[in-house]
Amino acid sequence: xxxxxxxxxxxxxxxxxxxxxxxxxxxxxxxxxxxxxxxxxxxxxxxxxxxxxxxxxxxxxxxxxxxxxxxxxxxxxxxxxxxxxxxxxxxxxxxxxxxxxxxxxxxxxxxxxxxxxxxxxxxxxxxxxxxxxxxxxxxxxxxxxxxxxxxxxxxxxxxxxxxxxxxxxxxxxxxxxxxxxxxxxxxxxxxxxxxxxxxxxxxxxxxxxxxxxxxxxxxxxxxxxxxxxxxxxxxxxxxxxxxxxxxxxxxxxxxxxxxxxxxxxxxxxxxxxxxxxxxxxxxxxxxxxxxxxxxxxxxxxxxxxxxxxxxxxxxxxxxxxxxxxxxxxxxxxxxxxxxxxxxxxxxxxxxxxx
Length: 354
What we know:
The chain has one helix at about 350; strands spanning about 10-15, 40-45, 55, 60-65, 70-75, 80-85, 90-95, 100-105, 110-115, 115-120, 130-135, 145-150, 165-175, 175-185, 190-195, 200-205, 215-225, 225-230, 240-245, 250-255, 265-270, 275-280, 290-300, 305-315, 315-320, 325-330, 340-345. Strand 14 and strand 15 form a beta hairpin. The strands form seven sheets. It has a four-stranded antiparallel β-sheet, with no helix packed on it. Strands 3-4-5-6 form a four-stranded antiparallel β-sheet, with no helix packed on it. By secondary structure, it is mainly β. The protein is globular. The chain contains one helix and 27 strands. It has one domain (about 10-350): Neuraminidase (6 Propeller), CATH 2.120.10.30.
């Protein structure tokens, strides 16, 4: 089985409630164990198992998947706004005693243009998830409208347990092409390619076909003419991997292990750097949140140089740099399945890199 991640296979369905978004608190300092020169504050709170952060064109406002609450938020100053809500959610894990853990819904969202969001409809069983084209909720409070939907990705193996791909996340958009990290049966690990004009998605890059045993792709990024993909691997095991794919041949051309990072989930290229990234390490555990890490990862010809810059982050998941040069990090917070999730804002990279 692939790793027990809060944002992977979903087993039991429900409809998310939709609490009122909470205003962002003052950006006071937050202690997440940062090294000297960096600062962290809370950009938004009151989130439930948040999963993905991106930025609106032109204005640059953070757009966050408040996954467990079944909604996507625009964080506009002290006035967070739900762009779409009431999306389906499911619980990833149901224990023998009946407890349900890790409620998740929309896993990723990026802007196609100023008026359209592409959102993963991930609150469904594997093989039934798709991409949604959404006209966001207006400022008057009208609900966001789903205007189109992609196909789903069915089974890719003969295994009876293979129901198809799900937990679509890790979006990386290049014009009308988008790369999507998929989770399904571990006998075949996929990154899918979506044609946003044709509204079609297809499982395309298979790690297993090329002898890559590490599964759970979490984030894709365009890099050096190819696609850099972060694979998280098994929960609690130091087996994370970065793979640089050649998009012409469909084959991996280089790989880097990430020693010391047990559950890497987020990947963002540091602005102005050709080969250095920030990686979030979730330090995942079933039923609780551990203090995770932020690490700078510099990719060399053969090895990755890893420097931990924070070691007390409450369940970091996804990350990306905003147009302001700061790093935004979604975090589970101190407890799963509660509204204690956070969007953190980490600054200081520009001074560290001078």
